[in-house]
Design brief:
Elements lengths: L4 E2 L9 H5 L10 H17 L7 E7 L2 H12 L6 E5 L2 H13 L3 E5 L8 H10 L5 E5 L1 E2 L4 E2 L2 H11 L2 E5 L18 E5 L10 E7 H4 L13 H11 L8 H16 L3 H21 L15 E5 L7 H10 L2 E2 L1 E2 L7 E5 L6 H15 L4
Parallel strand pairs: 1-12, 3-4, 3-5, 5-8, 8-9
Antiparallel strand pairs: 2-10, 6-7, 9-10, 11-14, 13-14
Helix pairs in contact: 2-9, 3-4, 5-6, 10-12
The structure holds pyridoxal-5'-phosphate.
Pyridoxal-5'-phosphate binds next to α3.
Enzyme class: transferase
InterPro entries: Aminotrans_V_dom, NH2EtPonate_pyrv_transaminase, PyrdxlP-dep_Trfase, PyrdxlP-dep_Trfase_major, PyrdxlP-dep_Trfase_small, SP_NH2Trfase/AEP_transaminase
Cofactor: pyridoxal 5'-phosphate
Length: 363
Amino acid sequence: MKQYKLLTPGPLTTTKTVKEEMLFDRCTWDSDYKEITQKIRRQLLDFAHASAEEYTVVLMQGSGTFAVESVMTTAISNEDKALIITNGAYGERIVKIADYIGLNFVQYAVEYNEYPNEASIRKLLAEDESITHIVMVHCETTTGILNPIDMISSVAQDYGKTLIIDAMSSFGGVEMNVPALGIDYLISSANKCIQGVPGFGFVIAKKEKLAACEGNARSLSLDLFDQWKEMNKDGKWRYTSPTHVVAAFSKAIDELIAEGGIASRQNRYTNNNKLLRERLAQAGFATYITEEKQSPIITSFIYPTEQFSFDSFYHFVKEKGFVIYPGKLTDADTFRIGNIGEIDEEDISDLCNIIEDYMGVRA
Ligand SMILES: *Cc1c(COP(=O)(O)O)cnc(C)c1O
């Protein structure tokens, strides 16, 4: 098979050294392995600027959605009610999870290219005092919009609501002070901005909140409280853990630190994203999200003409070594290019040359 670099927002392009960590089969109950889990948990707290007194980290087998579902079923009891804010498919997936579990919730939906409105949210909270939790996606990977985390954080703090943030595609690539933002549960996964391979998700949780959740979960495997209690003893996971993925993730964390930490990685992503958008604008591609709302993670581009064939474009670009992503919108013809992962300026420049060739606009 011809190899290519992934410009998709997870799984993404990882380093050779991260992949090489998976060449050794580790024992799940051996102390060396359990120490890797504990190391990861400590380092994720550091990335979040959180202290071990106030916060804890729980790792959960499965893709990111499993971790989201584990938070929804564990953190929200039958007496609670969630306000789920949506402007994309990942927010809508959370609504679907809430439906499946049978949670009490209200959905506040806005257009995919718009921010949720602060006044509307405050009004909803003022009118319905039974709401206990607010749930929002940070970077909506559907479009690439970066939702206003400061706004929702201050609203949640003003009204004293528990705040759940799906920061799947942003954590590790966008600086976030989790305690300062008053986030009670932040969810992300191994194969996004930390640049590991797929296989588990993680939750950075305020201990005081999680400690009150015993017995809430309607699922055995996804019980975040039980998972925490077990893992917190000595780093042994409840049920088989994805050993290869965990080892690779530990290496990916070391490489993130070596890169200079989250701020440096955010810089690389931001510069690459700017270069991509500038060059593609010159080649005739407009973006779906306006610049001030755009994340440094992934960008939705509108088809340049009515005759544009994504299929032919995709295969042309893939043949030259890059895989991009179809769009996920119903009201506009778009495709997406992610720029997270082990991708440097030269890669983006190569990609833009390829796209200019396709469009027949190469200088
Ligand atoms: C990737 C992602 C998820 C999880 O998706 P999985 O396919 O389960 O890994 C959830 N929310 C957002 C915003 C994402 O980008």
